[in-house]
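Agenda item 2: magnesium ion complex prediction
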Amino acid sequence: MRISELHVYQKDLPIVGGPYTMSRTSLDCVDTTIVKMVSDSGIVGWGEVAPIGPVYQPQHALGARAAISELAPNLIGQSALAPLLLRRHMDALLNGHNYAKAAVDVALMDMIGKHHGLRVCDLLGGAETERLPGYYATGIGSPDDISRLADEKVAEGYTRIQVKAGGRDVAIDIAVVKKVWEKIGGKAQVVVDTNRGMTASQALRLSLACSDIPFVFEQPCNTLEEVASIRGQVVHPIIIDENTETLNDVLRAISMGVCDGFGLKMTRLGGPNAMATVRDICAARSMPHTVEDTWGGDIVAAAVLHIGATVEPHLLEAVWTAGSYIEENYDPENGINIKGGYFDLPKGPGLGINPDETRIGKLIASFA
Ligand code: 0XW
Ligand code: MG
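Presented output:
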């Protein structure tokens, strides 16, 4: 089986209840890129990548489409059964741009799964579970609003609430964390994520002011070095998200001893196969982590669930998809939706979803 066609689509995903706010960005809509890969045997594989705006991390939507267009002519005719070889081929054609290569990797895994009648989780080694805990991420807000939202989400069944912080007076963030804990303390894991939005001294101040609240501190500062500078004084466990752009970044963070776990984005790291490698590196060092992505519709969400299902349960903190912020599923029948704080792993071969082609946006480029 060989790759015979590749089509690239662009779709705007308006954010339900937007804007979605973080310390350094506020967005009403996310621009997603969808890849349709067709084999010479007529099998279709779907991939997707949706950076959350151009500021959250160095990746952005136009960059994804430019990188895919750079690669695509040289992907036609390649084996559709060898993800490792395709990855090396892509690396030989284009340096970096893991997030764009991730969309190709997802599409290829979907195609291989459909070819063999296997799910992507089975291709990645096998599913530990059919039901995955999701987490809920709030935006930046006031103590009253965020604590009320956290309380509602715990009542819905969520076991992990990520509260956004940073980019404003630390005293407000401290008040938010205290109020959230007052409402949901002991009922769910609380995570405080500054999205690189605090200086080292601000992060330290937040940690010390809330030393009696057992939250997990996510990406407290901009760089690993800044986090390392306060690591010995912060009283909370630290997980690193945005600073893990490559496998080497994950290894560097572990070897620096700068964190206790990770928030792992599937496309940022390069797709399901790169994530499987990081999963195994984390297991070798007993590092708990999430499996998630920046944004995206059913295609990214399904890929996230398939990888999440392969993580040893005691190391899987939770998964996150953008589903609750998106208006409609690409696949009206098997689309990914969270219920009571948990996701069901898709059942069908490949990713287990079949996008309706009227719902995947506009065609940008075709290669054959
Ligand atoms: C909660 N998220 C997964 C959604 C946005 O992509 C940001 C993010 C995070 O944890 O930073
Ligand atoms: Mg984060």
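Discussion summary: Residues 52, 137, 162, 193, 195, 241, 263, 292, 294-295, 320 surround 0XW (ligand 1) (CB under 6 Å).
Owner for follow-up: CH.
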